[in-house]
Design brief:
The chain has 710 residues and is of the alpha/beta class. The protein has 23 helices and 12 strands. It is 57% helix and 9% strand. α12 runs antiparallel to α13. The protein is elongated and about 135 Å long.
């Protein structure tokens, strides 16, 4: 078993505190104000969530999720109505790790929950008061990491959110990948974690004898496993509150006969765990209750903030990619329309040109010349109807193919290429911890849906309503029909105007007919070209309108992104206010009213540290007599406000004990600190991010690493 001594840097005698800093002012009851603050905080968080959804039109934006509160989540006020309730200790670990055996050993009952070797034997949440101390309630949870047991993991993690302390029960043989992921997420939640290495030594025959006679041999040689567990926890920036080695089944069996078998109970080392819990209750029960009350709402706000930030990034990326896709496909379609228009104009010119020598093949300039001319015009119209219709059909096919090709090509273009990552990093300690731990917000993965976005953006490209091809399809029939109907309209009137009612023309010679046919053909060609120009012009206008609508849709995504970013910043401000209220409450619970009144601002990294700025006198008080709040307090002073980068070293000194910290380099916007101690890089990274968020400067931390350390 490890010990966690309360830090008192210079081992001052208790009487020195009032001598140096005066008597504590009258204490203020922290609970009414805290309950009211948390209720207001939760209400404001819910309001921001509703505003975010309303801004999105009340419906989900494709590929983007807004974190929702867990169903059935207790209100902060009702969850803590009984402030004198036992300390809630939640048992977590992989399936068959021995959690139910530990529950039975700690409560003296409920042996029926002990598994029989099957995975997922216990699949519910069950709590009972410890038989050793009425101050401790022990809660059993389903195992994590079982095949098909994602629901069990979710149930266990929800129970952990409502814990004061979590006991991570790990069998003494190994830790599985799925269990490691759950352990990292547990670290992100920020609950204090006691690691219980549960020995799997058989209690049959020689195994029982070995446990009783050679316990050091049975419990020994587990350093490698413990190092692995600590490494996974360090990925989330946390360290164990304590580590104990137990034999849960031996402890349970020692109670099975209704009378404690003292030798087996002692050999199980279960008392090491109960002693650690009793010590934690004595030192931090009120602090843990306050932190549980606060974190129920703070966690929700952090998840919502990360959702809004990630959603903002994805909206910007989606808008940028949509614009690029749409502009690309419209450029391609415009080229196709231009080429088709040139080909159709050429067809008309060719068909009309072949009729310009029609008079050369006319042999009878009598009464039949009128009907012969009408027949020739009809044949020309039929020819143009076929050729122009074929051109239009080919144009539609080419446009469909172009859209399909563009969709395929853009599917392979990652939206990350367009993402503005600088939006994500304003004070995003929690989100960065998630990224390093390899888990998503509340276990969910946020991301932009890729692939067939293009079709939806430019309207149903393959026959669906709306979009440029709908414009084409609707206009195609009208255009072809219009070509076929020209004979009954302008062209027929032209023919009648020249030949009907003008008997003198019928008797003239061939040259005179040629003089009349030429202008007629000019007018016919003009009418066809005008019809083509009008149709293609309408098509271009339709595509331009569709492009403008698409651009407006992208602009609306950008406006929504900006709105969500502003809301995320509002949430950050709320969380900072919550952190200041948290440290003030914890100081009052700890009997440090003077320090509680001196907190100017604070940044809390749950389960890792609290960074608090005090006035000068209070800073030295917090430094010489550091309060034991259940989370490490690192103080700074407002005298450093103009030198925030350099002042980060003062906060860093509060994060380590008996270690040298010096400033490697600094400027107005950044600083690099070196801590002369072997600390896991993942933990110092979280410290640096916390300092960055707190000071508003870019803080980096280096450490003195031992050769070969990880």
């Amino acid at each position: 078993m490890t010990t966690r001594d309360v830090r008192n840097r210079y081992q001052w005698q208790p009487f020195a505190l009032p001598v140096l800093f005066g008597e504590e002012p009258p204490a203020k009851d922290p609970w009414p104000g805290l309950l009211e603050f948390v209720a207001t905080f939760g209400s404001r968080t819910s309001q921001i969530r509703e505003e975010a959804l309303t801004a999105a039109g009340g419906t989900a934006v494709a590929g983007i999720e807004i974190a929702q509160p867990a169903s059935g989540e207790k209100s902060a006020r009702s969850a803590t109505a009984n402030l004198n309730a036992p300390m809630r200790v939640v048992l977590m670990g992989r399936t068959m790790a021995g959690k139910s055996s530990l529950l039975a050993a700690m409560t003296g009952s409920h042996l029926e929950r002990i598994g029989d070797g099957r995975q997922r034997f216990s699949r519910d949440i069950f709590g009972a008061v410890s038989s050793v101390s009425e101050h401790v309630e022990v809660v059993d949870t389903p195992g994590v990491g079982a095949h098909g047991g994602a629901d069990d993991t979710e149930i266990a993690l929800k129970a952990a959110l409502d814990a004061d302390v979590v006991v991570w029960v790990n069998s003494s043989d190994s830790i599985q990948q799925e269990s490691a992921a759950a352990l990292k997420l547990l670290g992100l939640i920020g609950k204090p974690i006691i690691v219980a290495i549960n020995c799997r030594q058989s209690l049959e025959g020689i195994g029982r004898l070995n446990l009783l006679r050679f316990p050091d041999r049975v419990f020994g040689n587990r350093e490698g496993l413990l190092d692995e567990i600590k490494r996974h926890m360090a990925d989330a920036g946390v360290e164990p509150l304590d580590v104990v080695y137990i034999h849960a089944l031996a402890a349970a069996q020692a109670l099975a006969q209704g009378e404690v078998q003292t030798e087996l109970h002692t050999a199980s080392r279960i008392d090491d765990l109960t002693d650690a819990l009793e010590k934690e209750h004595a030192a931090h029960s009120a602090s843990r209750r306050a932190i549980r009350l606060i974190d129920n709402e703070r966690q929700t706000a952090e998840e919502l903030t990360e959702s809004l930030l990630q959603g903002s990034i994805n909206l910007i990326a989606r808008s940028a990619r949509d614009r690029e896709m749409i502009n690309d496909v419209h450029r391609r379609m415009k080229r196709l329309v231009l080429t088709a228009g040139e080909s159709m104009a050429s067809d008309v010119e060719s068909a009309v040109g072949r009729r310009r020598d029609w008079h050369l093949i006319v042999t009878d300039f009598g009464k039949t010349v009128q009907s012969d001319w009408a027949d020739e015009v009809r044949l020309m119209q039929e020819e143009l109807t076929r050729s122009l219709g074929s051109r239009l059909t080919a144009l539609i096919a080419d446009l469909k193919s172009t859209i399909a090709d563009a969709d395929t090509e853009w599917t392979s273009v990652s939206a990350d290429h367009f993402a503005l990552r600088d939006l994500k990093d304003f004070n995003g300690v929690w989100g960065n911890r998630i990224a390093r731990a390899g888990v998503g917000v509340a276990g969910a993965t946020l991301g932009l849906s890729g692939g067939a976005v293009l079709g939806a953006q430019i309207g149903g490209a393959l026959g669906l309503a709306g979009g440029p091809l709908a414009i084409l399809t609707a206009g195609a029939g009208l255009f072809v029909g219009g070509i076929a109907g020209l004979a009954a309209g302008q062209i027929k009137s032209l023919v009648d105007h020249i030949f009907l009612g003008k008997d003198g023309v019928l008797r003239k010679r061939r040259e005179q007919v040629a003089k009349q046919v030429g202008p007629i053909l000019d007018d016919i060609e003009h009418e066809y070209q005008k019809a083509i120009t009008a149709y293609l012009g309408g098509l271009r206008s339709g595509l331009e309108g569709e492009l403008a609508r698409s651009d407006e849709q992208s602009a609306s995504l950008e406006r929504l992104s900006s709105h969500w970013t502003v809301q995320a910043k509002h949430l950050r401000t709320l969380v900072r206010d919550m952190d200041r209220e948290t440290i003030s409450t914890l100081l009052r619970v700890n009997g440090r009213e003077r320090l509680a009144r001196s907190v100017k601002r604070a940044t809390r990294v749950p389960g890792v540290c609290i960074l608090a700025e005090f006035d000068d006198s209070a800073f030295w008080e917090s430094w010489l007599f550091p309060p034991d709040l259940g989370e490490v307090l690192a103080g700074g002073t407002s005298l450093w406000s103009n030198y925030e980068s350099a002042g980060a070293s003062g906060y860093a000194l509060g994060l380590v004990e008996a270690a040298k910290v010096h400033l490697v380099k600094t400027d107005g916007g950044s600083a690099t600190l070196r801590i002369h101690e072997d600390i896991p890089p993942a933990i110092t990274t979280v410290w640096a991010e916390g300092l960055t968020a707190h000071t508003g400067r870019n803080i980096q931390i280096e450490t003195t690493r031992r050769t070969g350390s990880r």
